[in-house]
Amino acid sequence: MSRKKAFKAESKRLLEMMINSIYTHKEIFIRELISNASDAMDKLYFKSLNENLGLDRGDFQIRLTPDKDARTLTITDNGIGMTAEELENNLGVIAQSGSLKFKEEVKGDEKAENNDDISVIGQFGVGFYSAFMVASKVTVRSKAYGADTAYLWTSEGVDGYTIEECEKDSHGTEITLYMKENTDDEDYDEFLTDYKLRNLVKKYSDYIRYPIKMEVTHRHPKEDAPEDAPEEEKYEVHTEDETLNSMIPLWKKNKSELKDEDYNNFYQEKFYDYTEPLAHIHSKTEGTATYSALMFIPKKAPYDYYSKEYEKGLQLYSNGVLIMDKCSDLLPDHFSFVKGLVDSEDLSLNISREMLQHDRQLKIIARSLERTIKNELKKMLTNEREKYEEFWKAFGLQIKFGIYNGYGMNKELLQDLLLFTSSKDKKQVTLEEYVAGMKEGQDCIYYASGDSIERIDALPVVESVKDKGYEILYLTDNVDEFCVQMMTDYNEKKFKSVQAGDLDLQTEEEKKEIKEKNEDSKELCDAIKEALGDKVAAVRLTNTLKTHPVCITSDGALSAQMEKVLNSMPTDHKAKADKALEINPNHPIFDKLQYLFDNDKEMLATYADLLFTQAMLIEGMAIDDPVKFSEELSKVMAK
Asked: What is the structure's pLDDT at 230?
């Protein structure tokens, strides 16, 4: 005779909250119940090891039995089972976890052998109740190992539960879910299909160490079936007892057992990539955080990688059970291209096992993974340069964003991974390689920015820097100049833009000479500055130009190229660089400007505007008024 018992008030509230809100995906009930079954078998296996019961790991299994007619799903295990008292304590009081208690007892038992071989998944005692998200009624038939009596726990949810004696031939637990009625929004019948159950086991419980079995129905077309035969007569139907999970995770195998082919196949199947990965990282770490990691660096960026839709993250497992498909906290943004997974038993999980607390262990693992990824990339750069350049082509932009977005805080981590095209042989070089090749007495790393290498090579100032024998780094991505400005220096060598107004490449004699020329031409420069208005912050003579009449330089931290990038963004705020128009006093155009200053101030203003526009076009900048430029050009040509 059974008597209905009520859940405690706090348990009732927790059950209501959990069923309705804690779990965001109803399908995870299968993960929770399978994990509980795995725990039950772990407990009995541990007991067998320490009490010589003669049980082997191969004796255990989990079975799924869907019944479409009865609309039930049964999960059966031959684990340690439960007594009436344990049913009362473990299922009658929510968050009273038998697995957690067992784990604590094992850890505290110094005499117990083989403690390391036991891995209890469930620790918080609420996963079982996820069954009520899909079931209107749940029964638990259980018989403890070595007991004579079995017991049946029955509940229809928050109203309470009953416990009574029942018949059961062998030890273990049998949980039966009576599925809820289908609604317009929910199809509970899908959890009774072979296809859905197989997919869910593969997704969440593929690496449970015990076999998860199910009778699977297969239908094969009959070759000789008439076309007008009834549908059921066109197929041969048979069932097979299949193991749904692979049981042994690849990442828990020894590296010596695995080949590149094994890693590549795993990556392509797991992460749906038709190309092999560029590299894999297989590591096991013990200490302050114990975890296994298997990570991959793809060959190509996904189509949505540089969009807001891209979602970074590693799969997170706890003892082979999938907890989260994409845990973004495990990857910094600068390594967001990495695919893979982490498996740890140290992570603190909240009551649902679905939401991971951002605890100390997670942060330790994340920091460790960041160092591991960086070291693997540095090793590739050193030993497999061609492969690294292939990686850089796909993801180099993200590394540079990592330095810029962190306001330089990731400089030490990422600076040795950077590649820039150099004016020397037009090949990509690291900053370390650039510094090693610097001329004696050179104290700056010179760079120039523009839309392309060809555009940069056409810049007037580049010509003079090359003439002095200095190597120049070409910055062609929008983020490049922002990146190097955040770094400020590399190995105590300052970054210096050749497009800056204070390039300082002259000898003392050259500096004295140009200073005198500027003093002599002050009135001319002032007149040109007045004609250009706020288009420029200054006009001056320079001796850095060779064949060009003028150039644009920047007097502040914001260059003309940075202004262009910032102003291309969809914001109301517009940036403005402090531009200077520098004039070559050794070019014939300078004599013409002096003549116009003395004889035709109006035409001087026209020349000033034309020269400024010419310099802007060479810089790759858009001009404000093409019509005016065309009219002024025609005016000068007709003169």
From this structure: 75
